[in-house]
Design brief:
Elements: H1 3-27, H2 35-42, H3 44-58, H4 72-87, H5 90-108
C-alpha cells in the first residue's frame, strides 16, 4: 500500500465516522427506535468489550488457546470476575485484577 492510498483511506474513514456521528447528533431527537431496538442497543457496549477482552485472555500470545493456570491473563480475569460480582465496586475490582495479574505473572515466571 502506498503512502497516498493509506492517507486517503484514513481520511475517508474519518469522514464516514464524522458523518455518522453528526447525523446522530443532528437527527437524534427526531428518530424513535422501537423498544426492542433500544434494548438491543443497550447490549452493544458489553458485546464490544467482550469481543476485545476474551481473545486476549484466552490466547494472549495470538496462538492456540492457553487454558491453564500458567496463563496470568486467564487467572486474573477469573479472579477479577469473582471480585467484581461479589463487591460491585469498580475501583476495588480493577485494583484486585491488576494486583492478581502482576503477582501471578511474577510467581509463574
Amino acid at each position: 500500500m502506498s503512502t497516498t492510498s493509506g492517507i486517503l483511506m484514513i481520511v475517508g474513514m474519518a469522514i464516514v465516522t464524522y458523518c455518522v456521528k453528526a447525523s446522530v447528533l443532528l437527527l437524534g431527537h427526531r428518530i424513535r427506535f422501537a423498544p426492542i431496538v433500544r434494548t438491543a442497543l443497550g447490549f452493544v457496549p458489553v458485546t464490544v468489550l467482550t469481543a476485545i477482552v476474551v481473545p486476549i485472555v484466552i490466547a494472549p500470545h495470538h496462538g492456540d488457546a492457553e487454558l491453564s493456570w500458567r496463563n496470568p491473563q486467564l487467572v486474573a480475569a477469573l479472579g477479577t470476575a469473582i471480585v467484581g460480582f461479589t463487591t460491585r465496586h469498580a475501583l476495588a475490582t480493577i485494583g484486585f485484577g491488576l494486583a492478581l495479574f502482576f503477582a501471578w505473572q511474577y510467581a509463574v515466571a
